[in-house]
Amino acid sequence: MLIGRMRRCxxxxxxxxxxxxxxxxxxxxxxxxxxxxxxxxxxEVTRLVERHFYDPAIVAEVWDDALAGARAELRGPAxxxxxxxxxxxxxxxxxxxxxxxxRPGELAYYELMDIxxxxxxxxxxxxxxxxxxxxxxxxxxxxxxxxxxxxVAGVYDGGPAAQAGILVGDELLTADGAPxxxxxxxxxxxxxxxxxGLRRGANAAPLQLAVExxxxxxxxxxxxxxxxxxxxxxxxGRRFGYVRIWSYARRAYQRALIEALADGPLAAVDGLVLxxxxxxxxxxxxxxxxxxxxxxxxxxxxxxxxVDYANFRWRRPVVALVDxxxxxxxxxIAYALQRHGIPLVGSRTAGALLAGRGYLLSDGSLLELAVxxxxxxxxxxxxxxxxxxxxxxxxxxxxxxxxxxxxAALELLARQPPPxxxxx
Length: 424
Hints:
Layout: H1 2-6, H2 32-35, H3 40-52, H4 56-73, H5 80-92, E1 100-102, H6 107-116, H7 122-128, E2 136-138, E3 141-146, E4 149-155, H8 160-164, E5 171-175, E6 178-179, E7 194-199, E8 207-211, E9 214-216, H9 218-229, E10 231-235, E11 238-244, H10 251-262, E12 271-275, H11 289-292, E13 298-301, E14 307-310, E15 318-322, H12 329-339, E16 344-346, E17 355-360, E18 366-372, E19 390-391, H13 404-415
Parallel strand pairs: 11-12, 12-15, 15-16, 16-19
Antiparallel strand pairs: 1-18, 2-9, 3-4, 4-5, 5-6, 5-7, 7-8, 10-11, 13-14, 17-18
């Protein structure tokens, strides 16, 4: 099946680099007595935390108390919801990024499952996804809870939500009259119209928009969204490019960016806005060399006329967009660009820079666990993030599609002198 074939390319850490998992000394393992009376899933997570979490000292300091808290919380019959809440609280005590617990029904579950999937998961995945591929039925938007309400924080370019006219900042109210849920609202409805109730202004009457859900395979969808995001913007007689990297956890995304810049729709633009906001990280550190590297460019032309690039370099102005959703490997790229004089516009990045790995649990849920600390040129960005050169606030609720950060990036790009040399 497709899942079995996919695994060879991914058994990965969620951050750049070839980081080997080594046998680190850890705290004393929890005994059967300490786990007695707790749901088996908590014992399974405990064993993984004790074996793989990157900092044994943190585990030794907080995990016994976390187990005690779970025991107190789960007195009496433990439902799935109560167990989930207890696990989330336990993992939160570790106090770091790249550590969380996800179940089917959450958008992040499907996206992270496809990012982390490995060969040795194939048998279990074929049970969870009988169609043979990691997929869910959805419309391609990212919700965010603010003040007890749900707002559109991202609209994947080219997806059903974008085609239906849903905008960043819209308040999500209903789907076919029931409360909106990014997964449950569309389950079993691929190819069928669903009516969404939205509010575009704080005191505005609700809008009704029809959207057609589709089966979404996350990694392929991220790639399609990257390509669909590409724009050429005319301004004062000059042409500027824009592209959004929704996920950087595959080499395919970097290849698509290079192709667009080398001989695709962005090849002749005078400058580029590189949007690193939101989505997922996973970038390799060498991706920044596309914009800052000095190695000579090489091309290979075969007898079929196809041209491949080695060490492709973009040598025209670049401005990068960042925000609190710029995390993990994207923060490495942002840090490298800034160090080489490429301005960052937006807000502070997430400060979520550890190496994470996914563990498929026995009940089909997913554990993400930080398995290695990360420093960039000796600097630890975890908990710190990268500050933009030009800070531009962005008030999400009821933004109605307005994007002041992108507007500021284009303005900054337009103020730079026109390029004199070739783009490459």
